[in-house]
Amino acid sequence: MYFHGDRNKKNIAITFDDGPSEETLNVLAILRKYNIKATFFIVGKMIKNRESIIEAIKKDGHEFGNHTFSHKRLWFKSKKFIKEDIQKCDNELQIFGIKTNLIRFPGLKYGLNAIKICKLLNKKVIAVDFITLNQFAWDWFNPWLKKIGLIKNNIKIDKVVKVTVKNTKNGSILGFHDYLQEIGPHPELSPILEDILPKLQMKGFDFVTISELLN
Predict the structure, then answer these.
(1) Least buried of 115, 118, 164, 174, by fewest C-beta within 10 Å?
(2) Which superfamily is assigned to 11-214 in CATH?
(3) Phi, psi angles (nearest 5°) of residue 67
(4) Separation CA 5–CA 176 (nearest Å)
C-alpha cells in the first residue's frame, strides 16, 4: 500500500475519488488552468449517463484508478464480492480503452481479503498522505457536518486550505472528491482547488500522476 512517493523529490500527486460527476468538469477546467495532471479514482456505478465525462478526463491526459463499482466498504466483505466489485469497475473502464493497475479502497477501509485480492489482481493500493491524520484536511468533512445538521454555514474552506498547504510534503498523495458518495455534489471543491493549487505551486511542488510519483 502506498501512502506517499519519494520524500526527496518535490513531486506530489493530487487525486479525486467517487466520481465521475458534473463537478468533474469544473475540476478539469481548474486543472487545465494550472497545467496539472491528476489521478481520478472512478466509481463504476457513476459512469452510466456520464460517459462524456470519462472521455473528457481521458482527453485531458489524466490518469485513472479503480475505486470499485459499488463504493461499498471492503473490510467485512468476502473475497468473491471484492474481486467481482473491482473487476466490474475495471470492465466499465475498459469500454473506454482504459486499463489501470491502481486502486483505492472506498473510505480507505479494507481487510485482509481486500489485500489478498488486490495482490491476486496485480493492483497497487493507493492510500493518501497526511489527510488521514487531520480531519481539517478532509474535503468531505464540512459537507458531511452540514448533511447531518451540525452546521449550517455556507462554503467554508479556510481550514482545509491551511492544513493542506502547511502539511504537504515531498511525495505527498493528496486526496479530494469530485463527488461525495452518500452526501451528494461537492460545491466546495472548486474554491478549495482554486486556493490550494497555486499556493502549492508557489512552494515549488510539481504535480504528477500517481504512476509518475511512484516511479
Answers:
(1) 115
(2) Glycoside hydrolase/deacetylase (3.20.20.370)
(3) -120, 25
(4) 17
Question: Taken in order 125, 131, 134, 135, is the CA torsion positive or negative?
Answer: negative
Q: How far is Cα 4 from Cα 170, in angstroms, rounded to an integer? A: 8
- Which runs of consecutive H residues, i.e. helices, occur in the chain? 22-33, 51-59, 79-94, 112-120, 141-147, 158-167, 189-202, 210-214
Element (H, E) at 65: strand 63-66
pTM of the model: 0.95
pLDDT in tens, the chain (215 residues): 999 999 999 999 999 999 999 999 999 999 999 999 999 999 999 999 999 999 999 999 999 999 999 999 999 999 999 999 999 999 999 999 999 999 999 998 999 999 999 999 999 999 999 766 677 788 888 888 888 887 776 667 888 999 999 999 999 999 999 999 999 999 899 999 999 999 999 999 999 999 999 99
